[in-house]
Amino acid sequence: GVLMHGPTFMGNPLACAVSLASLRLLQSYPLKSMIGKIEQQLRTELEPCRESPLVQDVRVLGAIGVVEMKEPMDMKTVQPAIVGQGVWLRPFGKLLYTMPPLIIQPHQLRKITKAMLSIATRKM
User: Fold this and answer.
1) 29 in helix, strand or coil?
2) What is the 3-state secondary structure (H, E, C) of 73-101?
3) Which residues of 54-86 are buried (b: 16+ CB within 10 A; e: fewer)?
4) What does the alpha-carbon distance between residue 4 and residue 11 come to, in Å, rounded to a whole number?
5) Which mean pLDDT values do the consecutive 10-residue runs of the chain (124 residues) have?
6) Measured between alpha carbons, how far is residue 50 from residues 37, 54, 71 in Å?
């Protein structure tokens, strides 16, 4: 029937306990403040990308930073260049984006934004 596997997962006491513990942990962090700090750092550090003739747009919303290129990126060139800088980003077509964990430290985020800037300006 429609809910063949429903009883297997619905109301599982262990799953419910884990979910509640996860929500409590999440609510224990000052998330608005953390996201605000990440957003401000992304805005500041990605802004120089706008100067590149290769860049169409730079967008930041909360803890998401996006550099939109004018042309799709060559993954065979870009991916090794990013990894070579000790950063893992997955370019998608014309978009180079990051959604870092909310517990990221400023020096760690700086490493990501530097890699993004190097790709945006082709200073790999």
Assistant:
1) coil
2) CCHHHHHHHHHHCCCCCCCECCEEEECCC
3) ebeebebeebebbbbbeeebeeeebbebbeebe
4) 15
5) 59 85 94 97 98 97 97 92 93 95 97 96 76
6) 21, 9, 15
Average pLDDT of the chain is: 91
In angstroms, rounded to a whole number, what is the distance separating the alpha carbons of residues 117 and 108?
15
3-state secondary structure of 9: helix
Give residue 12's pLDDT.
78
H helix runs in the chain, sequence order: 6-9, 13-27, 31-46, 75-84, 106-120
Residue 22 one-letter amino acid: S
